[in-house]
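worker-03 picked up job from queue 'complexes'. Input manifest follows; two sequence lines, order preserved.
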Amino acid sequence: MSNQSAAASADAVFDALGDPMRRRIAEVLRDGPQPVGRIADQLPVGRPAVSKHLGVLEGAGIVTHQSVGTRNLYALAPGGYAAAQVWLTENWDAALAAFRDAVEKGGRP
Amino acid sequence: MTRPLPPIRRHLVVQADPEHAYRVFTEDIGTWWPLARFSVYETGNTVAFEGDEIVERSADGRTSTWGRVLAADPPRGIRFSWHPGQTEERGAVEVTFTPVGATQTLVTLVHSGWEAYADAASAAREEYRNGWPAVLAGYGAETAAGAAGDDAVWLVLSHAAGPAAGADGVFAHPLFAEHRAFLASLAADGVLVGAGPLPDEPGAGQTVVRVPADAASDYVSRAERDASVSGELLRLRVRPWNVLLP
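worker-03 finished. Artifact:
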């Protein structure tokens, strides 16, 4: 179940994904691990901006990086969306539980 | 093209027919939606399906469109875009209503594209941070009325490999022991008809149970709480099965 730290991690994930460019970067990374340059090639912003966004995504646990030779490869972190997903799932569960109460209250005898 | 994240998928069984469940979900959404927990505006607000839009209205007359109905097929299901607090139409929610026996309904909610959801969440999470009890109130509150019309109902639990299944596959994963324990608990209850892998798809399997009608809701929620499902090793789809023969 939820607790303060789960809420805090969900906050970080949603804060990070609140920026459209960071969402685009996360989408680009779904194709697999990539260096900064290749990520930037697919977006209308330069490498420095992409690096900065990657830093925020990494801080929220959505992205990790690995040094391969002289360059860094960025990838989606396993379970990086987990906090956000847990948060949303809990909201749906609360909504559906309230829905069930409403259905059954007015329902059969 | 990029691969989408797997959707959020929730199941529950309600003690009502699909017509009534569909009506409450759509026409009566304002009576049950937990606005205090999840909304764009502060107190005094309302939410309703207005035409083909889901609209929240604040006490001082502001409006926020949460989504737009993309397809409606009452009482079988409804599909709508879902972006509270955002203008971009990205996520989508599909809710289906399937009869379970004669008197109950399986409600399945699938939320796809949820990763594009950030702004909506930030509107609601203040409440969350302020300590709104994240209590799944209904989960413990099974109605005692029961479903006297049916003796037993059959459910098919379809499992497929989820995002947590690594290169070693579903069956080698430590969480798979939790799935075995879940199946053993079904067998111990005497409701398990059959369970096992579907070898045409790596990691997939199927379980058939025959449960007392008034316990269907409980078994569906147990299938969701199976740690291999909540831990994303397996993705669950519940399907009622109208067994006619033998």
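worker-03 released lock.
Chain B is about 25% helix and 35% strand.
The longest helix of chain B spans residues 176-189.
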